[in-house]
Design a protein that fits this description.
Largest sheet: 3 strands, antiparallel
Shape: elongated
Radius of gyration: 29 Å
Structural class: mainly alpha
Strand order of the largest sheet: 1-3-2
Helix content: 55-70%
């Protein structure tokens, strides 16, 4: 009767591999549990911190943004809903919900005049003039009267716009040169549109005889500076005109396309127009 002989050490090697895998699984489970315990302890500490500094979180924009930065690594979002533990503890969900509504109203109210493009500074200025519940609460929290209401912080407005962006409707922010623009139209602005915006935001005196920049462009300027054909430049400018994002001015036989919100930003004209 013949039989097959096992190689020397094969059985022992298999047992060692099984033992090693078992220990590895145990260590992984211990590490995972340790991480969970650490996160739980951090959440407890974060809750204690929030309770202790509730007033600063509610009234100090800088302190509030630092607190949100502390929450992010733990996956905690105090702004996720109007209800829940964190919303009940801090009331931040209510605050950002109302701020998001106010931002939407400000943008939509001026859409017929600027085509849905506003600078972040303009949004901030218009929000500060409102006498809604949000405006009054901001005035009180900053220790100012209704006649001396301080501006809602830029970071808070950014958070509100980010919440709006998740709901759709075209709300988003774009950086054009040194200006942050708030877009409130569902139409996507492609690279050609952004190029024209960048040309309009260049330094310029804003006068019709002053060349490019100054919140305005011409088809000739776009062709020259962007290296486009006349057909391409005219197509992009016509689309912006149809969407109400630019105003048209005929001066000495030259068509000038003005971005009203960019003009406001560059000339320091506060609020609506």
């Amino acid at each position: 009767m013949s039989h097959r002989r096992r190689g020397v050490g094969v059985g022992r090697s298999g047992a060692n591999a099984k033992y090693t895998q078992q220990k590895a699984d145990e260590m992984k489970a211990m590490s995972f549990q340790s991480a969970l315990d650490t996160i739980e302890k951090l959440e407890v500490k974060l809750t204690e911190f929030a309770k202790k500094h509730k007033n600063e979180i509610q009234t100090d924009p800088v302190f509030r943004q630092r607190f949100l930065a502390m929450c992010a690594p733990l996956g905690i979002d105090p702004l996720s809903a109007k209800k829940g533990f964190w919303a009940g503890l801090l009331g931040m969900g209510d605050y950002y919900h109302e701020l998001a509504v106010q931002v939407a109203e400000v943008c939509l109210a001026s859409k017929s005049r600027n085509g849905g493009i506003m600078s972040l500074t303009q949004v901030q200025t218009l929000l500060s003039k409102r006498t809604t519940k949000l405006g009054r609460s901001m005035a009180v929290s900053n220790g100012s009267s209704n006649n001396d209401r301080k501006l809602i912080s830029t970071p808070d407005i950014v958070v509100a716009i980010q919440k709006l962006a998740k709901l759709g409707g075209g709300f988003r922010m774009v950086e054009v040169g040194s200006t942050t623009l708030v877009i409130s139209v569902p139409m996507e602005l492609d690279q050609d549109h952004m190029t024209v915006l960048e040309l309009a935001t260049r330094d310029g005196n804003g006068n019709l005889d002053g060349g490019g920049g100054g919140a305005k462009v011409t088809s000739h300027q776009v062709q020259q500076d962007a290296g486009w054909s006349k057909e391409r430049a005219d197509r992009v400018l016509e689309m912006l005109l149809q969407q109400g994002m630019v105003w048209l001015d005929d001066y000495k036989g030259e068509l000038y396309y003005w971005f009203p919100s960019v003009w406001q930003e560059q000339n320091g004209v506060a609020g609506d127009f």
